[in-house]
């Protein structure tokens, strides 16, 4: 699919009629991947469009292609680029990267001093974020705004998050700090170097978390036997086990 015929721009109130299509695709995509996602209503998406805090992608004839929006937390100290979604017909076309780049630029324009962060279970999104200068971090470096974490309640993995006392979950946290960050070419090169390790660790993390959660919930191990009772600095770049297994 050629992306040069796809328009990526800041969404406006005139795009409100796409809101239901966007939220429906967000939900169906999460179900297809078998991963969690914080649900958003069409009304919430429309609000973001009216605030100028969303990016939309359309074909020249007006067909919806993709979407992403901005959320602010801790009185504007933190900004999240959330809800990235691409229509199935346009996936693997490179448009997701263009949407993220546009959303990143919009975030920097509106909130130049804010720390930009995101949570993802996808390796493809990790790569896009790395190309923009994001780096993996522990959850302790994210906003502690209760409203943000409340948004995870509709995620299927919320119980796992709470069982880890909000210190970790299946998602990987990534952060861009405008006052203290690596150059995009550095984070992109590091991701390329360690991408296979990230992929293995993400699979292991998912398996380990789910098994540990089921064990805690049922009081048994995977054999059915009853069991007995019972951040470091950001510049320690990509210490994988710390980022993925901050128990």
UniProtKB/TrEMBL annotation:
It comes from the Bacteria. Gene3D superfamilies: 3.40.630.30. InterPro entries: Acyl_CoA_acyltransferase, GNAT_dom. The keyword Transferase applies. Residues 6-167 form the N-acetyltransferase domain. GO terms for molecular function: acyltransferase activity, transferring groups other than amino-acyl groups. SUPFAM superfamilies: Acyl-CoA N-acyltransferases (Nat) (SSF55729). It holds the Pfam family Acetyltransf_1. The keyword Transferase applies. Keywords: Transferase. This is Acetyltransferase.
């Amino acid at each position: 699919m050629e992306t040069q015929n796809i328009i990526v721009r800041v969404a406006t109130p005139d795009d409100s009629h796409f809101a239901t299509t966007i939220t429906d695709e967000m939900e169906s995509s999460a179900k297809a991947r078998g991963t969690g996602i914080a649900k958003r209503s069409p009304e919430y998406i429309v609000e973001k469009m009216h605030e100028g805090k969303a990016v939309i992608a359309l074909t020249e004839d007006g067909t919806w292609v993709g979407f992403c929006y901005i959320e602010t937390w801790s009185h504007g100290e933190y900004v999240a680029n959330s809800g990235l979604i691409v229509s199935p017909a346009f996936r693997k076309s490179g448009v997701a990267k263009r949407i993220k780049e546009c959303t990143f630029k919009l975030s920097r324009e509106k909130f130049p001093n804010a720390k930009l962060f995101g949570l993802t279970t996808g390796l493809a999104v990790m790569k896009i974020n790395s190309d923009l200068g994001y780096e993996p971090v522990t959850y302790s470096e994210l906003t502690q705004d209760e409203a943000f974490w409340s948004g995870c309640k509709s995620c299927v993995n919320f119980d796992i998050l709470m069982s880890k006392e909000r210190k970790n979950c299946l998602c990987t946290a990534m952060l861009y700090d405008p006052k203290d960050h690596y150059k995009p070419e550095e984070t992109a090169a590091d991701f390329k170097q360690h991408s296979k390790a990230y992929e293995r660790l993400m699979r292991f993390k998912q398996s380990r978390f789910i098994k540990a959660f089921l064990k805690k919930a049922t009081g048994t191990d995977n054999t059915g036997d009853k069991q007995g009772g019972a951040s470091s600095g950001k510049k320690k770049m990509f210490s994988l086990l710390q980022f993925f297994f901050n128990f």
